[in-house]
């Protein structure tokens, strides 16, 4: 299935990683990673840095699945507000998830500082807008609980919001801990880096049809009947991982995004903040290095790619109109538009680790709007599992985490 359609900005702006290298024989590796997007790339990075031999497999061209359509906003906020999440999972898990996301932003920053790779990583603030009176009530609850647990947070009333962000709104939450990046560029640069430094092997256009246990680990069967033997297999291909799970754990969503033509730098909104709102489906906005404006949202339950794609033109108009409601004086001319399919979970948290304790079939499923920060957490946890190091984060992000519902 096509994970996105239209014209994603990131593929247009970057050099294409035009690698065609299908597996044409039986193969053996210590760790097989299925998926070459930002999740697979971060996992490969952590394993290579730890001296663990691994190989990437993808049925597509490198990083052209969901990563190519990601708007790559890095926030500690999770799709499920903390004030709601504590009623879905135990409070300790909810709070730990938020702090892990906060820490992961700096971890990602350090990955690209250490490797000296360009991922267009930029630190920016976040502004969470109240869409209506109910939104104000939510923000008030969020402010109190985040403040109580020690998360960085500021509350802006209408006057402060106008002064800080030049938005005529009711109220907002603000923090200075967020970032934005180019997920496609990040993935391809990380993979190229480890191809050169660690002789990372990458097999493209190689679809894994089946995973079965073997005496020494697993055997992966490709669509052309080649076998990959490995000690561990890491499944990092998003919602397409469903074929390797015993049961469904995610919900599929169609999401939409538009990118403007470049605007005068003086017309970019203050602080280049990441902006999102309390309404459902929510609107989110970010800027780019070359002063384009990206607006996304209008999520719907996914039914099929045809219906998703058919709605694109209508969704473009809605996103343009919603942007104008927030910034009527900024001239937004849509130059690119795209839609994609993403996954979410009932609690808004990812699934990381083995389905059953002790298994060496591991999952790195960074579902939800915070997928990239979750992917960074997953990369560290899975590295520790392979190194036989205890990682308490499995209690928060594992398949067997407790639920209040």
TrEMBL record:
Matching Pfam families: DAO
| SUPFAM superfamilies recorded | FAD/NAD(P)-binding domain
The residue ranges of the FAD dependent oxidoreductase domain are 30-382
GO CC annotation terms, alphabetical: cytoplasm
Q: Which PANTHER family match?
A: PUTATIBE OXIDOREDUCTASE, SARCOSINE DEHYDROGENASE-RELATED
- State the protein's name: Glycine/D-amino acid oxidase
State the organism of origin: Algoriella xinjiangensis
At the highest ranks, the source species' classification is: Bacteria, Pseudomonadati, Bacteroidota, Flavobacteriia, Flavobacteriales
């Amino acid at each position: 299935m096509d994970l996105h359609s239209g014209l994603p900005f990131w593929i247009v702006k970057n050099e294409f990683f035009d690698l065609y290298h299908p597996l044409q024989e039986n193969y053996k590796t210590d760790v097989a990673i299925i998926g070459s997007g930002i999740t697979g790339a971060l996992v490969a990075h952590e394993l290579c840095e730890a001296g663990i031999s691994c190989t990437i497999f993808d049925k597509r061209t490198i990083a052209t699945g969901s990563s190519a359509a990601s708007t790559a906003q890095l926030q500690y906020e999770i799709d499920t507000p903390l004030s709601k999440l504590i009623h879905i999972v135990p409070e300790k898990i909810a709070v730990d998830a938020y702090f892990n996301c906060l820490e992961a932003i700096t971890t990602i920053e350090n990955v690209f500082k250490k490797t000296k790779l360009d991922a267009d990583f930029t630190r920016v603030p976040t502004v969470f807008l109240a869409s209506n009176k109910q939104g104000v009530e939510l923000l008030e609850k969020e402010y109190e609980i985040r403040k109580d647990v020690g998360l960085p947070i500021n509350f802006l009333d209408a006057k402060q919001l106008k002064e800080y962000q030049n938005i005529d709104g009711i109220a907002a939450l603000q923090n200075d801990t967020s970032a934005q990046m180019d997920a496609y560029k990040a993935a391809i640069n990380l993979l190229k880096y480890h191809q050169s430094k660690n002789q990372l092997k990458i097999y493209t256009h190689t679809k894994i049809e089946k995973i079965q246990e073997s005496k020494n680990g697993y055997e992966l069967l490709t669509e052309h009947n080649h076998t990959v033997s490995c000690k561990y297999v890491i499944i990092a291909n998003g919602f397409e991982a469903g074929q390797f799970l015993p049961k469904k754990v995610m919900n599929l969503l169609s999401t939409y995004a538009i990118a403007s033509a470049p605007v005068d730098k003086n017309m970019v909104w203050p602080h280049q903040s990441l902006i999102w709102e309390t309404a459902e489906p929510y609107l989110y906005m970010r800027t780019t290095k070359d002063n384009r404006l990206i607006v996304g949202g209008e999520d719907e339950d996914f039914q099929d790619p045809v219906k998703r794609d058919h709605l694109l033109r209508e969704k473009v108009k809605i996103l343009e109109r919603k942007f104008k409601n927030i910034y009527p004086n900024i001239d937004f001319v849509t130059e690119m538009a795209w839609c994609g399919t993403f996954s979410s979970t009932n609690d808004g948290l990812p699934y990381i680790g083995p389905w059953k304790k002790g298994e060496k079939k591991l999952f790195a499923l960074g579902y939800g709007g915070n997928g990239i920060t979750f992917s960074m957490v997953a990369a560290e946890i899975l590295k520790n599992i392979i190194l036989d190091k205890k990682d308490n984060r499995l209690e928060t992000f594992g398949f067997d985490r407790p639920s209040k519902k």
